[in-house]
């Protein structure tokens, strides 16, 4: 099933309904939204030679054109490759090359950053923020979306890998469909008068939540800032009303602090889905006290997008159940389209209350990793996705996260793998050893800390070195220069000791 059919169906039902907004300015109704997507698909086919199954990359900030491009790509039966706009151009170029993308849509500024790094597989590039882009809308549109099967690849999402290189998660039409329908069953309903606000990156969870709102014919709003600004969000919500959004826990905290400072309760915000890491219980308790029952929690990962567990509005707001605080500290119950088990090192399911690896099976679980059979076979075993997250399930089915089996740091809702940062730091000639860990932080959830064995180098130089190689959000926020790193008898760095040291600092 072609995902573009959802847009076509809605455009036929509600052609005049407002669809795309930049701030409070209406950019297109649903009839125009669908026509533009069909025109983009036609243009890709006629001018770029893109056909079913070809990859088209999107490396640009949040904008209404993002949705037009996504549906234009799917109209043609091609594969969308959304890339985090916060990545360094070198990182984006690697993803584009690995995906074998034929075309790249970006901004004029971002395209200039590539220089000679643009991969040879790319035959066409276009900037959506220049006047010529709108000429694409004049292309005679395709008459109908290209037929595709449920197991056809539609979304190639790159997630950080422990080897330092991202892995391409292959998501099919069936994966996306299951995720979308589970949202209605387990998280929230969507109504035609609603609006989804894209304050988090559209390349990730915020963008993948477009489907439910297209299905219902709701509004799609990109803030004028293109990102997260608490005052802007509160102002937009008050004006637009019935606004839903996805936010990382750090965003929720900032939004609540802003509402409290303004003496407001978030009027106009209907639902805030938070994920990308659990919130501190005290923070979500305060959020409900200040802003009311507007919050829903979701747990997912690229390999099972936004579809592992959920803690719905009633559970987040409940204060009457004897175990309400423990439940609020959990990531909720398994969503309807998946089975979740807690498994031990031997792969066997553990008893309730025991801590093990969270494993998931069901319709949203990815097809596999792009061109990486080894990683696929190690991660999906007998149909079960090994998430790499450690947790336990209580007698009622509520899942609580514990230490991760992987060393991933979640900062501001973004995943950062220490080895990737370590490898960059080790490229500096003054650095002989390095170990990167996460440190709890009230604003970001976690921050990146680098323990470095080096000679004659300042933190500022290492910071500049990192900024030349990786995205700004991945670089360490703290550097600790040491003579030696603690190791066990096998020479493995004891990160547990480093974590204890950093947490004990005043």
Describe what this molecule looks like in 3D:
This protein is an alpha/beta fold. Among the domains are: 121 residues, Rossmann fold, CATH 3.40.50.980; 96 residues, GMP Synthetase, Chain A, domain 3, CATH 3.30.300. The chain contains 17 helices and 26 strands. It has a nine-stranded mixed beta sheet, with helices on both faces. Strands 16, 17, 19, 20 and 21 form a five-stranded antiparallel beta sheet that branches. Helix 10 links the parallel strand 11 and strand 12. Helix 1 runs antiparallel to helix 2 and helix 1 runs parallel beside helix 8. The longest helix is centred in the first third of the chain and has 19 residues. The chain is globular. It starts with a helix and ends with a helix. The mean pLDDT is 94.
Q: Can you tell me the CATH topology of the domain at 28-148?
A: Rossmann fold
The mean pLDDT is: 94
Shape: globular
Strand content: 25-35%
- Tally the helices: 17
* DSSP strand count: 26
Low-confidence stretches: none
CATH architecture label of the domain at 28-148 = 3-Layer(aba) Sandwich
- Strand line-up of the largest beta sheet: 2-1-10-9-11-12-13-14-15
Main sheet overview: 9 strands, mixed
Q: Would you tell me the structural class of the helices and strands?
A: alpha/beta
> Could you tell me the radius of gyration in angstroms?
23 Å
- Our measurement of the CA-to-CA distance between the termini, rounded to an integer number of angstroms, reads 56 Å
Question: Considering DSSP H and I runs of 4 or more, what fraction of the residues is helical?
Answer: 25-40%
- Specify the CATH class of the domain at 28-148: Alpha Beta
């Amino acid at each position: 099933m072609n995902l573009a059919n959802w847009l076509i169906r809605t455009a036929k039902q509600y052609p005049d309904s407002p669809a795309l907004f930049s701030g409070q300015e209406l950019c297109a109704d649903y009839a125009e939204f669908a026509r533009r997507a069909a025109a983009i698909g036609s243009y890709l086919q006629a001018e770029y030679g893109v056909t079913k199954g070809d990859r088209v990359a999107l490396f640009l900030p949040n904008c209404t054109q993002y949705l037009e491009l996504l549906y234009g790509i799917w109209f043609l039966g091609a594969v969308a490759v959304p890339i985090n706009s916060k990545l360094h151009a070198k990182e984006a170029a690697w993803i584009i090359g690995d995906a074998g993308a034929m075309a790249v849509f970006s901004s004029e500024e971002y395209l200039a950053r590539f220089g000679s790094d643009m991969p040879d597989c790319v035959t066409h590039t276009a900037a959506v923020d220049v006047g010529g882009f709108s000429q694409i809308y004049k292309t005679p549109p395709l008459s109908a979306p290209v037929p595709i099967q449920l197991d056809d690849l539609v979304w190639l999402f790159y997630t950080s890998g422990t080897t330092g290189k991202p892995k391409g998660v292959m998501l099919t039409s069936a994966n996306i469909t299951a995720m979308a329908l589970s949202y209605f069953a387990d998280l929230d309903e969507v109504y035609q008068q609603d609006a989804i606000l894209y304050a988090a990156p559209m390349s990730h969870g915020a963008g993948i939540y477009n489907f439910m709102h297209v299905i219902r014919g709701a509004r799609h709003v990109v803030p004028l800032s293109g990102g997260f600004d608490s005052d802007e969000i509160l102002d937009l919500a008050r004006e637009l009303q019935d606004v839903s959004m996805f936010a990382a826990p750090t965003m929720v905290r900032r939004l609540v602090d802003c509402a409290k400072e303004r003496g407001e309760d978030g009027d106009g915000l209907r639902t805030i889905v938070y994920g990308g890491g659990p919130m501190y219980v005290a923070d979500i308790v305060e959020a409900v006290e200040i802003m009311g029952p507007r919050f829903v929690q979701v747990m997912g990962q690229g390999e099972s997008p936004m579809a592992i567990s959920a803690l719905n509005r009633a559970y987040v707001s409940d204060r009457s159940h004897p175990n309400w605080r423990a439940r609020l500290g959990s990531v909720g119950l398994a969503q309807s389209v998946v089975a979740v088990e807690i498994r031990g090192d031997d792969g066997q399911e553990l008893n309730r209350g025991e801590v093990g690896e969270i494993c998931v099976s069901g319709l949203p679980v990815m097809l596999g990793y792009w061109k990486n059979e080894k990683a696929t076979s190690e991660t999906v075993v007998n149909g079960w996705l090994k998430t790499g997250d450690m947790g336990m399930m209580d007698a009622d089915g509520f899942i609580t996260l514990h230490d991760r089996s992987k060393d991933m740091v979640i900062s501001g809702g973004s995943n950062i793998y220490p080895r990737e940062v370590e490898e960059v730091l080790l490229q500096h000639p003054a650095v002989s050893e390095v170990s990167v860990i996460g440190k709890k932080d009230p604003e970001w959830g976690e921050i990146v800390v680098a323990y470095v064995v080096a000679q004659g180098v300042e933190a500022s130089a290492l910071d500049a070195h990192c900024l030349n190689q990786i995205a700004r959000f991945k670089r360490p926020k703290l550097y600790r220069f040491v003579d030696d790193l603690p190791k066990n008898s096998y020479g493995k760095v004891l990160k547990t000791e480093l974590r204890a040291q950093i947490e004990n600092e005043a």
